Amino acid sequence: MHFLLKMNNKKDYTKIAHIINPVVVEKSSDLFYAQPITIKSMFEARMFSHNGVDVKLFAAVYPEDEILVNKDFDKIIFLSKLLFPIILIFLIFVILPSIKFK
């Protein structure tokens, strides 16, 4: 997933944020081969970006998957399995009641 943001300052420039959520998987999984390629392409995109393009690399991982990312990421966000019930409760009791069905 990536986001492309166009910023209008004194000088126009583009910000690109690559965001991944890598997971530890068995060798039989397609992700075992796809994730390293994805991560390598993210770093290459940043390396080959030109003036006026700011490429940021982010990873959102659970603690057990931290070994898949390195210190070269701009930001590593640590996820918690405790957040899922909180998000679910928010969805059920706040978001869904506010939706108007016809």
Show the helix and strand layout.
Elements: E1 2-7, E2 13-20, H1 31-47, E3 53-61, E4 75-78, H2 83-98
Parallel strand pairs: 2-3, 3-4
Antiparallel strand pairs: 1-2
Written description of the protein model:
With 102 residues, this protein is an alpha/beta fold. The protein has one domain (2-98). It contains two helices and four strands; from the N terminus they run ββαββα. The chain has helices at 31-47, 83-98, and strands at residues 2-7, 13-20, 53-61, 75-78. Strand 1 and strand 2 form a beta hairpin.
Number of domains: 1
| Form type | flat
Distance between the first and last residues' Cα: 34 Å
Q: Give the structural class.
A: alpha/beta
What oligomeric state is this? single chain
**Uncertain runs:** 2-8
What is the radius of gyration? 18 Å
The largest β sheet comes out as:
4 strands, mixed
Number of DSSP strands? 4
Strand content: 25-35%
Question: What is the share of helical residues?
Answer: 25-40%
The number of helices is: 2
Reading the helices and strands in chain order gives EEHEEH
Overall mean pLDDT stands at 78
The largest beta-sheet arranges its strands as: 1-2-3-4
